[in-house]
Automatic annotation (TrEMBL):
<dbReference type="InterPro" id="IPR009057">
    <property type="entry name" value="Homeodomain-like_sf"/>
</dbReference>
<dbReference type="GO" id="GO:0003676">
    <property type="term" value="F:nucleic acid binding"/>
</dbReference>
<protein>
    <recommendedName>
        <fullName>Transposase</fullName>
    </recommendedName>
</protein>
<dbReference type="GO" id="GO:0005634">
    <property type="term" value="C:nucleus"/>
</dbReference>
<dbReference type="InterPro" id="IPR036397">
    <property type="entry name" value="RNaseH_sf"/>
</dbReference>
Length: 203
């Protein structure tokens, strides 16, 4: 069992002062006699306690190293940031409150806040179903007339980059304890956007 501050002070009193000082061996024996139910102390322990008192003037434990604990006020500020702006990022909260990003993440985890990611869903208009059917019939008809029709079509992979802050599903989050089922409408036909296409030929 480790010695507490009271035990160390008791050992100092056993050591004594002036011509009444005891040897380390005598202190160990006396401590064991007074506390037979405890683990005996070693001479090195007595020596270390005496040296610490002579150098520092006390036998208290040194302050623990590491980052200070986050107090409740800071935790409340982090939660309030998410409530006021559910789309905030850990980096943003960390910068605004001047605390570490890992601390922000730990607080969110502690209160069971999860960053829900947005999922893009294409809305179908009323006449979209007929258009799809018509397109399939058109493609099947031309392919029946020309067996090489499909092979001559050049398909492309298209990526759209918005310049006006539209949703980015890689960066957009919604902090909440439960799935908010949040929805927001976006229009793909917008003048402030640019497209990048990688062409590939069908096989």
């Amino acid at each position: 069992m480790p010695l507490n501050e009271r035990d160390r002070i008791e050992i100092l009193m056993m050591i004594g002062v002036g011509d009444r000082m005891r040897t380390q061996q005598e202190v160990c024996r006396l401590f064991h006699e007074m506390h037979p139910d405890r683990e005996p102390v070693s001479q090195s322990t007595v020596s270390r306690i005496e040296r610490k008192y002579r150098e520092l003037g006390h036998v208290r434990d040194a302050p623990r190293q590491g980052r200070p604990k986050i107090n409740e006020n800071v935790q409340q500020d982090v939660i309030l940031s998410a409530l006021e702006n559910p789309h905030c990022t850990v980096r943003q909260v960390s910068r605004d409150l001047n605390i570490g990003k890992s601390s922000v993440s730990n607080i969110f985890k502690k209160v069971k806040y999860h960053p829900y990611r947005v999922r893009l869903i294409h809305e179908l208009a009323e006449d979209d179903f007929d258009r799809r059917t018509e397109f399939c019939e058109y493609m099947m008809d031309h392919n029946n007339q020309n067996n090489g029709f499909i092979a001559n079509i050049l398909f492309s992979d298209e990526a759209t980059f918005f310049l006006n802050g539209h949703v980015n599903r890689q960066n957009t989050r919604y902090w909440s304890q439960e799935n908010p089922h949040w929805m927001q409408e976006y229009h793909t036909q917008h003048p402030q956007k640019t497209k990048s296409a990688l062409a590939r030929k069908a096989h």
